[in-house]
Amino acid sequence: MNRPTRWTRDTLIEWGVYLISRDGAVPSARHADIPDTTIRREFGTHNAFKEIIERVWIDRGRQRIEAPSPIPQVPSFSDGVPGTDSVHPRDPVPHDGDRPTVTVTHPPGYADVSVAQRRIEEGYAPAVQLPQPVIAIPKPVNLRNDVTIFVPDIHFPFHDPVSLEVVKQAIAHYKPRRIVQLGDMLDCACFSSHDGKTPDEMRNYDFEQHEIEPAREFMRFCLQNCGELVIILGNHEYRIERWVIKNGLPGYAAYNNIRVENLLGANALGVSPERITFLPYQPEAKDAAHGFWVSPNHIAVHGWSYAEHAAAQHLRIARTVSIAFGHTHRRENKTIREPMTGTALQADSFGTLSKLQPLYAVNGQPTTWVNGFGIRFESETNPNDWELNKPMIQNGRAIVDGGLRFSVN
After folding, report:
1. In whole angstroms, what is the distance from residue 13 CA to residue 27 CA?
2. pLDDT of residue 115
3. 19: phi then psi, degrees, rounded to nearest 5
4. In the structure, what pLDDT confidence band is assigned to residue 127 with cuts at 50, 70 and 90?
5. Is 169 a residue whose pLDDT tops 50?
């Protein structure tokens, strides 16, 4: 592709996507040879430009990799030598000109990436075997159709086991119609661009064993006790897509094997697809299209701000509806009354289910995080008529609903 002579929003995106395809990295404005004023005119900031071309690149990669029909199963993967019975040949991976040489950063504990790179070098796309149903989870009876439970950031494997058990007790008690996990259920530590800060972060770490399996176990428990499970992907799950972009074609070859929607989807858990909803993380979007509507006047998102007064900022962006969010690991509320309509609006975060002092805080500075979750009770006749309970978990105990206690002794 030749460098455009006339810059519009569309040509800027196409040129940026082309440079990612060619170089295997998101370009800076200087590297892209684009005037700084042009980027600011069309996108506002350089970060916004980078996030948008990343998203376009990812979406196009999904279209190339995800087959429109089920991918044939492979009897054995062996060591992937073309011409043997262990290899399923597929169409060559699309590329411009000669196949680029890409250095793969291997995630610890995920050997499929090296296999995928070897198959790319041989001219084959990977024959992916997605997880198969392991158990059948029927929809429970006697659901509370007036209850939704909000589960904030968990960050497997850096979760707080006691707090998670308290939440599970509440879920088993209420059997809510819906559970909304507000993002960052996984930490995706091995895909982080930041190096580990302590030996404990890196010791004996395995992505599937320490993150995926605990997440599956928790999700199965939720589905045994609720009607619908909503998973909002957060910035930590987005680490996987950033890793895919960084590693170019071999990264895309491994994408179906490490994509959260596949590893934690209906097939992996043994449930009907309509009982699980995934919402992708959209770093450049702050609008209703990228949140989950709990009711017409209440939306749930991962989080649009980490600032000290994040609740006020979320309410200012949401404007005409109430909003529930995660991301900050703090317990916050901002409530206002809209003077023209008399409607009360609120923004709420519920804390976190992760450990309150993370391993990477090596300078000794304590956090202001709290453990907690949310319970939404709504009218049986009007979904816009609801009340939010925000139990805080301390010393393995939470008090909710007029004195009802859940505790771990």
Report:
1. 11
2. 45
3. -65, -35
4. very low
5. yes
Collapse the DSSP code of 28 into the 3-class scheme (helix H, G, I; strand E, B; otherwise coil) and give the result. coil
Q: What is d(CA 385, CA 200) in angstroms, rounded to the nearest whole number?
A: 47
Between the alpha carbon of residue 227 and those of residues 139, 149, 224, the distances in Å are: 6, 11, 8
The CATH topology of domain 144-407 is Purple Acid Phosphatase; chain A, domain 2 (3.60.21)
Question: What is the residue extent of each domain of the chain?
Answer: 9-65, 144-407
Tokens of 62: 């999904």
Q: What's the rounded Cα separation, in Å, for the pair 82 and 115? A: 13
Query: Which tokens is 195 given?
Result: 């190096």
Q: Report the 10 Å Cβ neighbour count for 314.
A: 28
Find residue 394's DSSP bridge partners: 397
pLDDT tens column, 291-321: 999 999 999 999 998 888 999 999 999 989 9
pLDDT in tens, 318-359: 989 999 999 999 999 999 998 888 899 999 999 999 999 876
For the beta carbon of residue 194, count every other beta carbon within 10 angstroms. Answer: 9
Q: How far apart, in Å, are the Cα atoms of 341 and each of 95, 296, 334, 381?
A: 56, 16, 18, 22
Distance in angstroms (rounded) separating the CA atoms of residues 242 and 177: 34
Q: For residues 149 and 389, what is the distance between their CA atoms, to the nearest angstrom?
A: 9
Which among 180, 46, 190, 186 is positioned nearest to 110, based on CA atoms?
190
Label residue 11 exposed, middle or buried (CB < 10 Å: 0-12, 13-18, 19+).
Answer: middle
